[in-house]
Amino acid sequence: EDLCILRRREDGWNLRAAAVCFPSYWSLKEKMGKPLDMIHGPVPQLNSAINEVITSKLDALETEKPVERFNWTLTDDMELHQPSPTRLNRDIDIPIDQIANNIFVRVERQTMMMLRSGDILFTIRTYLNSLRTILQDRELSTGLHDSIFNTNPEVLTYRGIERYGSQVMRAIVQ
Known about the structure:
8 helices, alpha+beta, five-stranded antiparallel beta sheet
């Protein structure tokens, strides 16, 4: 797992230390030492009100009681190490009958735990699953379908999902 240490300062929770091998379209060098509102600056819908909610949730973490959340995106690249915020634009048209073999669901399992020191340990474990694997499980494929369908278009674009989202939706309903 990738490991990050967040420390509370007057301007919020700051990234103070990290060992990140598998970033998902971000650079540790660009994020180090910054507060969460600046780290999340490029993320659509993460405005100052949302940042206050995130900050208060982090402030409320209990010592040594981790919480978890998940993020996901679609990719045509199996490489786990993705430090560039700009995704490769391969301009490849994947035929619908090949989409399940060429698209992957990149999932981050993130945990946050307050340490005795008052810092937060933030961990990220990145998984890549082929769309074919997801389509073989009705519950997973329905969940992916619903998640794509219910996600704001601006967020879909930020996550790079607009490139293959419609093809994935068609593959799910087939």
